[in-house]
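Re-run with default settings, no changes from the original entry. Doing this only to confirm the output is reproducible before filing.
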Amino acid sequence: MSNTSTNMIDGSWRKSSFSNPSGNCVEVAEATDGLVAVRNSRDPEGGVLFYTRPEIDAFVRGAKAGEFDDLTS
């Protein structure tokens, strides 16, 4: 994971259709060098974290498998 601000965003920011109206969610976008950018949707001018595609893949697979369900209750 990299939090360098020198990475540029290639795609538009998007968030899950499961996000609630109060904006409690994260947004993702494609970044340069094959990275994925992640930010807090309530603070679009704030920090951006950059992850590799394998890191994002591992997280999404874990979320789909329910590995993080205990964090949502």
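Residues 14-71 form one domain. The radius of gyration is 13 Å.
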